[in-house]
C-alpha cells in the first residue's frame, strides 16, 4: 500500500498545523542568500581594490620612469656656456683670444678595453707622435668617465680625450668636446651592434612583442648589453623599462645567451661581437637563438679635443690624430693592418649614438648592479661595449 503524504515528510500534521521543519527552511535559505550576497560583495570590493592598486602601481611606475629621465626622450643640446652658429651640434671656438687655451703641456686622457691584452691603439706611440706634431710636451692619464674626469675636461685641465663613442654626446654638450675621428679599418668604424635575441620557438617576432615580457641585460654599465637596448625599445617601440617590460641582469654575455638557450630568459640584450665569439668557439650554436633586432654599428672609440684650444693647436692635434699609423697595436683577426683613426662628422655619424644618450642619462643609474656579482670569463666587463 502506498504511504500517505505524512510518511514522506508532509509539511502538515494530522491537525493541519505546520511542522517545525517548515519553520526552519526559510531561515536557512535567508542565511544562505545573505552569505552568497556577502561573498559577491567581497569579490566586488576586492576587484575594485585590485584595479585601484594596479592603477596606483602604474602611476608610481610612470613617476619612477620620469624621475630617471627615461619617459620622453628629447634631443639634448649644448649647455648654455656654448654657442653653435653653424648648426654642427658642436661648441664654437671662442672668438675672444683671452678665452683660448695654448698650454705648454698637453694632457691626453684615454680609456682602454679591459678585455684586450693588447689595446687597439698604441697609446705610448700616439703620445710621442702627438708631441712630435704639436711641439708640445704630452702627458697621458686614464679616462674612466667619472664626474671628476668630465670636470677636468670642462675646466681645460685635459685637452685631448679618447673614450667610448656612446659617452661622447654628454661631453660634447656639457664639456665642449669636439670629436675628430673614430677608430676603424678602411674608413669603416670598428664597433659593435646591439642584438636582441630570443629562443628560436619564441612567439616574440617584433620589438612591440616585448611588452609585458622580461628583458635580460648584462649589466647597467654596458652600452650594447643595456643602454642601447633601453634606447631602441623606447624610441622604436615606445616601451619603457620596468613599466612596459621588466629588466633584470645576468652579469655576463655567456650567462645571457646560455640562459636563453636553457629557457631561463625570454629576451636578452647582447653585444654582437661577444655573441659571435661564443658561436665561433662552439659554446653555443646559431640554432640556439633567433635575432629580433640588430642595431647599426656603435663606434668603439672616438677621439677629440676641447673646443677652446687655440685654432692652430687644434689643427695640429687633428693632423696628429688622422696621421697616426698606430703600429704595434692589436689587429683585427684576418687583417694585416692595424686600426686607424679616420675623420667623422659628429652630426651625421653619431646620430644613433645620440639616440642612446637622449633616451636617458646613464649617470643616473636607474638600476643598481649587485656588488657581489662577478664577471664571467666571457669578457663581459667594461669591455662589454
Walk me through what this model shows.
- Helices cover 35% and strands 17% of the residues.
- The protein is of the alpha/beta class and 385 residues long.
- The chain folds into 3 domains: 32-67; 97-190 and 298-349, Periplasmic binding protein-like II (D-Maltodextrin-Binding Protein, domain 2, 3-Layer(aba) Sandwich); 194-294, D-Maltodextrin-Binding Protein, domain 2 (3-Layer(aba) Sandwich).
- The strands form 3 sheets. Strands 1, 2, 3, 4, 5, 13 and 14 form a 7-stranded mixed beta sheet that branches.
- Helix 2 (123-134) crosses helix 8 (311-323) and helix 5 crosses helix 10 (351-359).
- The protein is elongated and about 105 Å long.
- Mean pLDDT is 80; it is low at 1-18, 67-71 and 362-383.
Quick one: CATH class of the largest domain? Alpha Beta
Number of domains: 3
Helix and strand element order: HEHEHEHEEEEEHEHEHEEEHEHH
Q: What's the total helix number?
A: 10
Report mean pLDDT, rounded to a whole number. 80
From the alpha-carbon coordinates, what is the Rg to the nearest angstrom?
A: 33 Å
How do you describe this structure in short?
The chain is α/β, with parallel strands linked by helices and 385 residues long.
Secondary structure layout:
Blueprint: H1 20-67, E1 105-110, H2 123-134, E2 137-142, H3 147-154, E3 160-164, H4 168-175, E4 177-185, E5 188-189, E6 191-192, E7 194-198, E8 214-217, H5 223-237, E9 246-249, H6 253-261, E10 267-271, H7 272-280, E11 290-294, E12 298-299, E13 301-306, H8 311-323, E14 340-343, H9 346-349, H10 351-359
Parallel strand pairs: 1-2, 1-3, 8-9, 8-10
Antiparallel strand pairs: 3-13, 4-5, 4-13, 4-14, 6-12, 7-10, 7-11
Amino acid at each position: 500500500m502506498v504511504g500517505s503524504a505524512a510518511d514522506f515528510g508532509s509539511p502538515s500534521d494530522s491537525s493541519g498545523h505546520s511542522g517545525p521543519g517548515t519553520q526552519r527552511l526559510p531561515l536557512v535559505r535567508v542565511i544562505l542568500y545573505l552569505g552568497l550576497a556577502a561573498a559577491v560583495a567581497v569579490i566586488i570590493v576586492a576587484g575594485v581594490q585590485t584595479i585601484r592598486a594596479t592603477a596606483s602601481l602604474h602611476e608610481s611606475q610612470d613617476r619612477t620612469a620620469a624621475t630617471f629621465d627615461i619617459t620622453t626622450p628629447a634631443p639634448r643640446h649644448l649647455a648654455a656656456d656654448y654657442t653653435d652658429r653653424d648648426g654642427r651640434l658642436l661648441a664654437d671656438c671662442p672668438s675672444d683670444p683671452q678665452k683660448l687655451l695654448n698650454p705648454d703641456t698637453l694632457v691626453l686622457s684615454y680609456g682602454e678595453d679591459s678585455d684586450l691584452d693588447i689595446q687597439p691603439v698604441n697609446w705610448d706611440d700616439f703620445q710621442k707622435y702627438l708631441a712630435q706634431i704639436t711641439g708640445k710636451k704630452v702627458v697621458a692619464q686614464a679616462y674612466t668617465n667619472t664626474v671628476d674626469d668630465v670636470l677636468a675636461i670642462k675646466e681645460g685641465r685635459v685637452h685631448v680625450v679618447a673614450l667610448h663613442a656612446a659617452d661622447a654626446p654628454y661631453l660634447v654638450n656639457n664639456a665642449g668636446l669636439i670629436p675628430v675621428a673614430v677608430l676603424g679599418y678602411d674608413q669603416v668604424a670598428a664597433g659593435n651592434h646591439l642584438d636582441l635575441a630570443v629562443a628560436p620557438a619564441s612567439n616574440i617576432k617584433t620589438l612591440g612583442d616585448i611588452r609585458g615580457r622580461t628583458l635580460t641585460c648584462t649589466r647597467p654599465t654596458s652600452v650594447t648589453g643595456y643602454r642601447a637596448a633601453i634606447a631602441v625599445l623606447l624610441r622604436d617601440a615606445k616601451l619603457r623599462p620596468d613599466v612596459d617590460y621588466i629588466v633584470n641582469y645576468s652579469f655576463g654575455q655567456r650567462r645571457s645567451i646560455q640562459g636563453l638557450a636553457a629557457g631561463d630568459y625570454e629576451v636578452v640584450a647582447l653585444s654582437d661581437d661577444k655573441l659571435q665569439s661564443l658561436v665561433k668557439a662552439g659554446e653555443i650554436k646559431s640554432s640556439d637563438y633567433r635575432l629580433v633586432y640588430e642595431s647599426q654599428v656603435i663606434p668603439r672609440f672616438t677621439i677629440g679635443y676641447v673646443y677652446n684650444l687655440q685654432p692652430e693647436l687644434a689643427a695640429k692635434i687633428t693632423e696628429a690624430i688622422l696621421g697616426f699609423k698606430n703600429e704595434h697595436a692589436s689587429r683585427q683577426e684576418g687583417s694585416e693592418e692595424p686600426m686607424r683613426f679616420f675623420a667623422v662628422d659628429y652630426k651625421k655619424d653619431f646620430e644613433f649614438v645620440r639616440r642612446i644618450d637622449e633616451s636617458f642619462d646613464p649617470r643616473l643609474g636607474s638600476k643598481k648592479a649587485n656588488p657581489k656579482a662577478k664577471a664571467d670569463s666571457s669578457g663581459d666587463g667594461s669591455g662589454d661595449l
